[in-house]
Amino acid sequence: MSPAAPPSPPQPSLASPSPSPSLTGSALPSRGARLLDWRVRFGVLALIWGFSFLFIKVGTEGFAPFQVTFGRLLFGTAVLAVALVVKRDRLPRGARVWGHLTVAAFLLNALPFSLFAYAELTIPSTLAGICNATTPLWGMLLSLVALSEDRPTRIRAAGLGIGFMGVLTVLGAWQGFSGLDVTGTALALLASFSYAVGWIYVRRTLSGTGVTHLSLAGSQVGLATLQLAVVTPLFTSMPESVEVVPLLAVIALGALGTGYAMLLQYGVVAEVGPTTASMVTYFIPVIATAAGVAVLGEQLSWNTPVGAVIVLAGAALTQTRASRRRATDGAHLRAQEAPPTRVGMRPAGVGGPSRAKP
Questions:
Q1: For residue 279, how far is the Cα from the chain centroid?
Q2: Could you tell me which of 89, 94, 111, 68 has the C-alpha nearest to residue 266?
Q3: Which residues lie across from 13 on neighbouring strands?
Q4: pLDDT band at 151; cut points 50, 70, 90
Q5: What is this structure's pTM?
Q6: Cα 142 from chain centre
Q7: Where residue 324 falls among pLDDT bands split at 50, 70, 90?
């Protein structure tokens, strides 16, 4: 949702100028073995982030939305903390970096995760997954103002228009949005908007700090956990009983969708680059829709999958780059496009994915 998912959307993931040193060393397997390996992990990543919306839906059946978000962040932090210890990575240093991470934690984790949890009280997980796919559209729209170096091309502008036409198709605009829960849908779209704002903020404040992806992501998710630890008791009360299935859903959402999925994404980005890794974004709404229909029995009208395809087509066009810029920028552009971690993916969360994340 998680997706968490480098500075430019579409994916749910945390920005950093280059892959983590722990992922780029000589320990990487040979090219032949690598291809199969990253494809397997790519598929697992898409499945985890796609199922995150189902986990949120099931979690809210036994817990309040803030409790689902807090549990998600808590278990995600636990996984990333273990990874930090195993890799002997250090936490970031400096009050300025921690200040920016606090803002990033709110925009990329605490806020969107909570909004998706509240949204799924009234809308199906399929719709939430599709709303998550609008993040690249919001990202490009915001980049016109916030990132002066990221000038739109005609193709990208067309992609923006096509994408929002897809959103209107999903929502059934021609029939007056009848049968649509406006509040829940607005919350899901606002969550995706928050991802886009967060990624741009991270790109402008945390790129080039010299801190590894893992250290930034672990610190960010940890700060978001502290934020929810303060907020949750103020707006919720302890459940009278704890049901097993919702609890398992929250554990899976945090440990897999917010923790383990981020570690998977690091490896994929390091082996095949951010451009290929970012393609996971386009599988998330497909898997979220399939999971919602097959597992939860959610109803699906014709305009939902059709609109989703249009949204994804528009989102893909907004991520194109002019060939001349690609040729002149070279490795610098590659580093700048590393997906923001979907802490959440985004994925989501994805992330997301980093791009990156429900």
A1: 12
A2: 89
A3: 341
A4: low
A5: 0.78
A6: 17
A7: very low
